[in-house]
Amino acid sequence: MKPTHLAFPVLTAGLALSIACTAAPVSGVVYDDTNHSSVSDWVQPIDAGDVRLAGVGVALLGTSGERNTVTDTIGGYLFDAIPDGTYLVTTDVAPDVDSTSNNRPTRLPAAIRDGHVHLVHLGDSLGVVGPEPRFPTIFAEHLSAIAPTTVDNVAVGGSTTRDWLPGAATGFFENDLAPRLADADVVTITLGGNDLDVYLGNPPDYDPIHVIERFLADPEYLFQIYPNLATIIAAIRAINPTCDVVYFVYPNYANSTAMKGYIGDLQPLASLAFGVALGAGRQLAAENPGIVIADVYTQLGNAWLDPYLIDEVHLSAAGHQVFADVLFRALGGVDAVTGQAVQRSFGFDGPAT
């Protein structure tokens, strides 16, 4: 499968009309997450022991230009009466201070200010199966309201974390990914699901008892997913130390009619087990410093996934839209609409400097 390369111009149609309107405020809190209870933009409690950070610069980049403010004495910021449009919220917290809420990109805001964004997507079939446009393209089209955006989609259907390791026999890292990394601003990843196919057998057998038996006989395929992911991310950053890396947490695939057809009355148990695994995987992925977590699992929660899928795992048009929306929000994106308040908060592992 050949990689796709797409470019999108800045969208200006209708901008004059939107500026005539005013949107509800964009606000939030910048805080020192002292107990490390935050893990994504969707799982972000601000607890009594957390320290709200005053005097931190916050910027709103978007279709009406750039606005700047600083957090108040309780760590809050406010952008009021902004025009309807597309924006990105970013903070001036030093890049070497890790974000525990894993929603703070560092390169993307600079790329927007520079006037062009380059996104590279790698991973499994989620990015290359289903109706077009798919989520990397949808995201890029939306972000192009702020800055022209180019997409290189090098995902390969059926691939595992092992396939993307540097030096793997597939050559995916060296031949498909590495040549596109030097000027990448954002690198997005969907990987891990196919690593577990070994537990389903051939042909696939979704009986939970049989899956558990195969896992107990050969558990290393599960345990190697996140070490492999860390190796891939380290290799990406060895080539491009400043790019933002985003990892998608899958939705709970046990919650669909297609999957229930395989597992029957065990569906609630499978849903619970899969949710625990996704939560644990999200935590392991978050241990990579500077990573951004696109938390589709929490965004969709226990929703029945039929509207978002075309089969057991691959995305429908609505599913691709959800993935694009989650990616946009995880990177600090805001769609300002009159009458709708928006909140974006940012937790950090320590003070702002």
* N-to-C SSE string, H for helix and E for strand: EHEEEEEEHEHEHEHHHEHHEHHEEE
Radius of gyration: 20 Å
Cross-sheet strand order for the largest sheet: 1-9-8-10-11-12
Remind me, CATH topology? Rossmann fold
Number of domains: 1
CATH architecture group name: 3-Layer(aba) Sandwich
Most strands sheet: 6 strands, mixed
Number of strands: 15
Choose one word for the global shape.
Answer: globular
CATH class: Alpha Beta
Helix content: 25-40%
Structural class: alpha/beta
CATH superfamily membership, which one?
SGNH hydrolase
N- and C-termini, Cα separation: 45 Å
How many helices does DSSP assign? 11
Task: Walk me through this protein's architecture.
This protein has a single domain (4-348), classed as Rossmann fold (3-Layer(aba) Sandwich), CATH 3.40.50.1110. It is 29% helix and 21% strand. The protein is built from 11 helices and 15 strands. The strands form 3 sheets. The chain has a 6-stranded mixed β-sheet with strand order 1-9-8-10-11-12, with helices on both faces. Strands 2, 3, 6, 14 and 15 form a 5-stranded mixed β-sheet that branches.
